[in-house]
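Structure in, sequence out. Go:
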């Protein structure tokens, strides 16, 4: 089965079937690049379906792979997605932790756009919590 079959099914209006196929593929042995693609797509489907614990689980797997390959920017993107998942679960402390870890990685890599994006998300969380000075800060 081609890894792109999930995209075809999603476009045709069958995202649950695409997700189910990816779940079947999740625990099979593939090369690292294909495993990354499966985990990333599963995380996106989990977010789409509102299964935020699944988003966190898939991104934790991805971070493990990215740390092995020293792909820090991709790990930061996973941390951002985990921050979104925790935010949707209203677990704001955990969300802020993930965003802050991502921000640190972006700053180390001189990615000012990524750092700014995470700071903006952190500001929104502080605003939701009524911590306006921290949001501005």
């Amino acid at each position: 089965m081609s890894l792109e079959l999930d995209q075809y099914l999603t476009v045709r209006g069958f995202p649950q079937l695409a997700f189910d196929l990816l779940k079947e593929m999740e625990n099979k042995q593939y090369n690292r690049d294909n495993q990354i693609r499966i985990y990333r797509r599963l995380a996106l489907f989990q977010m789409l379906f509102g299964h935020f614990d699944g988003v966190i689980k898939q991104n934790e797997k991805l971070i493990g792979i990215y740390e092995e390959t020293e792909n820090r920017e991709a790990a930061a993107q996973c941390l951002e997605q985990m921050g979104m998942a925790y935010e949707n679960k209203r677990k704001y402390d955990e969300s802020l932790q993930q965003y802050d870890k991502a921000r640190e990685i972006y700053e180390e890599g001189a990615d000012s756009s990524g750092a700014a994006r995470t700071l903006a998300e952190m500001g929104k969380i502080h605003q939701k919590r009524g911590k306006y000075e921290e949001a501005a800060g």
